[in-house]
């Protein structure tokens, strides 16, 4: 397992092969430097040129960047476009018969869907939504399994100007209810159930539970896609079957022409405090971000078969399943299932069967697949691969090398892409035909992205010194605001300490002697578990909401596969439980968290104490808890602790 130490010592360099370099969309460091220079000389002109080259506008823009209400930046504000038109219609003439999606179901059956068919399905569904009264600006919650229909649902919203808010299918009824309520959504799109790893996942039932919790009075309809034959337990007048809604709809649908700044979607993500934030993205700038990164970072070629394994419930699934690949006209694999079903060969067998050229996944998946069978990729023909990518968390050099050698046969560059829900698209990543890679580093910022690492005062730090990762200039695909909470947007991302001038990413990082960026982790109380962002506060609030719990503190601990594991320190209202009692309550609390937030937030460990270690002012000493969670010796001064004996209690895990 990597530690920060092993990352710091890592300096192997992997330049692109000559063959890759000459064919690449951005070729060699000359190519990369030339783009950076253009961006430096004329920042707005640089983005305007890309905007004109890559996006099809209904009404071309004349204005590029408007900073008068900074940090509420506007890009291409007088341009109009439709994102779904860009993803579908514009490919029909030249590539109507090209597969847009190769859908592989959980059971292994696969179905190609051409651009023409996808266009028809999106149009029919968009017409269906319109027939239910959905119009421009309305919020639509998508709570769907991975599949063609999830993409159709999102694209149909984009077509009619409705703002989608996709909620990952693993989130609980409570989380779903909060998101519906915050967005005041008028419609939910779901499926009767999903299928993952041979098991059914209830979806409509969770929607029913969410609505029953109250606070979702804005909902007028629930559209249900019938994925399996299981009949819904509940069906009322607001429910509509997907197939009935679309059956009679025309296969053409005039897109709603949107202003570049009109919101395309909201996606909720965890922050350090409070409720999840509704990250709001624009239509024009966001689309450009996905397109330019498909071209530069994924070095898109028309005969590529692209596969991003992310679920559409996360930003990666938005930008690199739903929008980027379609906008650029790619053929992509969309996968319903999980990497370990029917066995750990699944990914490798899919790459071989579909002749995938570009494969994009998370370090946590790579690590778990190494554990389940480091030699399995060797049993498949992976020669179609030409480019590999990772996202979501730092990748440890050992996993990187395995990915490079065993999956990529030593010939495929690895693009380690650093970005966030808020950035909309890749920000720091190697351009694979230009930038030599180093295992564990996301390398250099993309041209036009002004990343830096600064100290508390906002001054740049020297190479080798850690600091906060910031972006110094607005970029087209950036978050526009937090839905319904502009103040929080300003405070969180453009804080006063930096005069409101720098975008604060929330990650710490350092550069090395080559200017390569190494991400060290979050500086706030956000955990990264299997590449998913979880707020410690969210899990703590869920625990404290349990009638047994008096107090709870949650920290992360390094985990071999997941990156970070969730450790919860809990004080009960009753006496501190021990033995079997402690085990039973710990199990109950785990279930409780799954119920409150979703399985992804379940603590890996629960430790009970009579109290938590606190400072004199009553603040929980999280740093101490992190040390305890790791099982390390405490070297800090604990003399101010009221009751040092609780530290001993907290060393014992109940799970
Ligand atoms: C795309 C995505 C964002 C946070 C981010 C950082 C971590 C993402 C990374 C990475 C190191 C990478 N992160 N990519 N850390 N190297 N290549 O994951 O968005 O879910 O919003 O998470 O994930 O900590 O701040 P999101």
Automatic annotation (TrEMBL):
Principal EC category: ligase
Cofactor: Mg(2+)
Coiled-coil residue spans: none
A GO biological process held by the record: acetyl-CoA biosynthetic process from acetate
Residues where Mg(2+) binds: 544, 549
Modification N6-acetyllysine, positions: 619
InterPro entries in the cross-refs: Ac_CoA_lig (IPR011904), ACAS_N (IPR032387), AMP-bd_C (IPR025110), AMP-bd_C_sf (IPR045851), AMP-binding_CS (IPR020845), AMP-dep_synth/lig_dom (IPR000873), ANL_N_sf (IPR042099)
GO CC list: cytosol
CDD domains referenced in this protein's UniProt entry, alphabetically: ACS
Segments forming domain Acetyl-coenzyme A synthetase N-terminal: 32-87
UniProt PTM comment: Acetylated. Deacetylation by the SIR2-homolog deacetylase activates the enzyme.
Positions that bind CoA: 196-199, 316, 530
Every AMP-binding enzyme C-terminal domain range: 538-619
Catalytic activity: acetate + ATP + CoA = acetyl-CoA + AMP + diphosphate
Pfam families: ACAS_N (PF16177), AMP-binding (PF00501), AMP-binding_C (PF13193)
Name of the protein in question: Acetyl-coenzyme A synthetase
UniProt organism field: Amantichitinum ursilacus
